[in-house]
Amino acid sequence: MAIGDKIINYIFRVSGLDEAEKGTKKVDNSLKKLAGTALTAGAAYFSARGIIQGLTTSVQLAAQQELAEKKLSQALGFTSQALIKQSSELQRLTNFSDDSIISQQAFLAELNFTQEQIKTIIPVAADLASATGMTLESAVRNTAKTFSGLSGELGELVPQLRELTAEEMKAGKAVEVMADLFGGAAQAQTETLAGTMEGLFLASSDAAESFGTMLAPAVKDIAEFLTDAAIAADNFFSNFNDNMRDIEDETLNRLSSQLEQLKGNILEELGKTHRVSDLW
Which of 72, 171, 189, 216 ranks highest by number of CB atoms within 10 Å? Predict the structure, then answer.
């Protein structure tokens, strides 16, 4: 060992710096263990939160799907598997979710459009929305207006519609014109990077929705149980409060009676004392 190293080691040993260095290493190791424990606990916590959030999201998506289909059935007066199938196919071919498509199908059904008319209008509206940048809701509503014989806002956006007569539009000619002009626009958007990412999101949402549908019966049972328990608890505490008021009233009446009796006894004793003092 070089003389320089010996001197340095001697200084460390005499000054106690070598022990301090060992202590520092121990502290450092302890901190590393603590950090590892904290990371493990943190990972477990966020994993649990992630699972709970995932379950909640799945059930919510399933509930939204169920509600949308229920509204469509109510608007039509029957359950249309054909329209539900169309919504699923359009979600696969476009960047519009089946929930949003079913909502627009229900809107058209409320306006008394037939199932076949709805099946024709929705894809054209999806292409119109994709080609022009308007929302699917706006596209459906503007397309529906053409069946009243008026081109409305679409007349400014699509000049070809102004060439149609009111009778032609009422017969659905405007939908045919827009199908020729914008056909395939919605599907073309899915071929872009943004469209691919949106398709991935919709597919993952569908998977979560299916999982939520599987959980739905258990969730409904739990919700019903908790609702019944909450009602029972409310009734119990309401009755308890009523009983307590009755007990309080009875207790107060009894106490008041006892006080009156005590008052009478005191007055009687005072009267006796007054009569004895008169003898003196």
Answer: 72
